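Researcher: We plan to redesign the surface later, but first we want a full-length starting point. Tokens attached.
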């Protein structure tokens, strides 16, 4: 198979490794800080004081008990722990701002800025790989960084991103603001609008497209959410009949780097599932013929990458159990 990728230079590899380690440390710091969300305050009631743990800005919370040596210790530990983790995150974010400049200077940022900004906003809102998955061409950026290579532009260049929404997953929001994919996009680029007649798609003034996709309900009239939130002006997911194959595949959350050096986690499919689905698309009568050669080129490039750089992802029947038997066997036949 032709290898449509090139290795990073030693300097680029060093900076990429440092960037990933730092970003993972920042995510861990944010996770630690989230354990101290809300506040603890003393409230008087009936002539006594009680310690309350407030969970949001509206004042909702629960009592931790009557004021005592134990609740005073809980209060002090909470305040000290929150201050400590705030300092940790503040320092890591300062280092990350510096790392962004290194990433940009080393030319290791590959993902379009708008995609990284969108995925980061979704991550900060509470979306993870169990909720939204990047399933189109842009997922190749996650796979190339896993292997420490750059795919050729011919197979990565695109002006759209496909987001597969797993409507089965429960979403634990980290924000109290209403969820709207379109509003998030507009906070990044105000020129994004929902396309008339294609409400699953948003487009900006440069022609960049964002598509929201879901598995077609079974039966089709089954009541399944079509929008992320209650905003009726938000994108309405389009239905595709075989997304259940991809939703059954393992998922990864890979740190990726934008063209401007900023970073986020890209939720993506197991690379084997991506490659096999691309092989299926390349032969599917449902596929636009003009896209089939590119599907095949992407599949072949990724399969070569797996064989040469990611042996921890063996291509065998067990790895493809999310696909129908005939699809998996056809793919394995083409690979061998």
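Model: Full-length starting sequence:
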């Amino acid at each position: 198979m032709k290898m449509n990728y090139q290795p990073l230079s030693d300097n680029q590899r060093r900076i990429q490794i440092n960037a990933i380690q730092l970003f993972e440390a920042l995510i861990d710091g944010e996770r630690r800080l989230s354990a101290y969300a809300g506040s603890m305050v003393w409230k008087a009631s009936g002539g006594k004081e009680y310690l309350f743990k407030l969970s949001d800005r509206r004042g909702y919370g629960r009592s931790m008990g009557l004021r005592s040596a134990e609740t005073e210790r809980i209060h002090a530990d909470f305040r000290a722990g929150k201050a400590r983790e705030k300092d940790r995150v503040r320092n890591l974010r300062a280092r990350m701002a510096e790392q962004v400049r290194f990433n940009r200077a080393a030319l290791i940022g590959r993902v379009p800025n708008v995609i990284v900004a969108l995925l980061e906003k979704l991550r900060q809102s509470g979306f993870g790989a169990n909720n939204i998955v990047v399933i189109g061409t842009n997922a190749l950026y996650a796979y190339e960084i896993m292997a420490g290579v750059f795919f050729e532009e011919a197979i990565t260049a695109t002006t759209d991103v496909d987001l597969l929404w797993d409507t089965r997953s429960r979403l634990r929001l980290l924000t109290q603001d209403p969820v709207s994919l379109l509003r998030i996009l507009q906070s990044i680029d105000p020129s994004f609008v929902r396309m008339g007649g294609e409400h699953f798609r948003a487009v900006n003034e440069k022609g960049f497209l964002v598509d929201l996709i879901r598995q077609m309900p079974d039966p089709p009239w089954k009541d399944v959410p079509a929008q992320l939130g209650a905003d009726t002006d938000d994108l309405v997911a389009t239905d595709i009949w075989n997304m259940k194959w991809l939703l059954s595949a393992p998922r990864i959350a890979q740190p990726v780097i934008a063209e401007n050096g900023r970073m986020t986690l890209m939720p993506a499919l197991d690379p084997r599932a991506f490659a096999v689905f691309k092989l299926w698309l390349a032969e599917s009568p449902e596929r636009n013929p003009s896209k089939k050669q590119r599907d095949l080129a992407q599949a072949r490039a990724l399969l070569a990458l797996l064989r040469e750089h990611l042996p921890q992802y063996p291509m065998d029947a067990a790895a493809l159990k999310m696909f129908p038997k005939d699809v998996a066997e056809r793919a394995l036949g083409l690979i061998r």
